[in-house]
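Researcher: Here's the sequence for the chain we discussed earlier.
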Amino acid sequence: MLRTAIVTLLFAGLLPLPVAHAEQMQNDMSAAEVALSNPNPTSDELAAWRMPTMNYPDENPYSAEKEALGRKLFFDPRLSDNPSRTCAACHHPGLGWADGMPRALGNQQGLGRHTPSLINIGYAQAFFWDGRASSLEDAVSQDLLAPGMASGEPINTIVTRMNGIAAYRGEFTAAFGSEGITFERIASALATFLRSIRSSSTPFDHWVQGDATAISESAKRGFTLFTGKAECIRCHSAPIFTDSSFHNTGINTVDPGHYEISGKDEHRNAFKTPGLRDSALTPPYMHNGSKLTLVDVIDFYDRGGDALGGGNELKPLRLNTAEKADLLAFLLSLSGEVPETLIPALPLALLP
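Model: Thanks. This is the structure I predict for it:
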């Protein structure tokens, strides 16, 4: 069941105004304009918020064998030279596919940013808080070599270690149609598995599918606020509740964010817009994990952020107490029950 302390959780943003990724924003604005123009959306208008089917890239097509292989690699400590570090160490399924900590923990060292959830990562068009990866496969490749997983070991060492497990050699052949374990195939299998990590069925999903009683009247008013007065939809757009763009939301931080990637002044201290589906299951929030309660986060956006000037895109929302309660009710409707995730049996390295 959804956690009983859910009212103390926080979500990752109510961002009013977009900055970058103009082309993607142009595609998203049609749904935003529909919702903004109608406080009582019709069933056709709500359909824009239904979850789409998952697309797989031509260079990494789906197969059940590849997904199963990626699942095993995700939980296998032998993928890293540090047996305590697996993909699941930072992205635990019981913690909303994150780690529940303000900052990520790497190889015996704290990292600078909060671990983002992997829920719906297969729909993303930008990766990492700063957008430094161009595809999910690229993001996986970078993560495998990052301090959280490795301690500087070369790619060929990873491949040699995995190739020494006979059962994996057969599973890679079944997944890719030919023999051979390569770093690219490891990343492709992991990316295929990650695309299977999707948000649970939520009250909001039932509502947009036609069940008028699936969410409360308070949550419906919250949706009107979300798409209207609060202008959250400007960045948290349909259907995944993110524009995959980057924004400065007034968090006090020296982290340059997307500026390190783009080199553009308008991207200084700007970070990727996270999705909000199942967000109540993935505290804490913000790129630095600095907001600890949902009430604090709503108040943060209501006052227009903490850092004034310096590119902060927020403006005060001036919500009253009832409006904040309605917005909270809507945000909670975006999360469902936590599905159980089985850890697969891993192949033994004892066989020839």
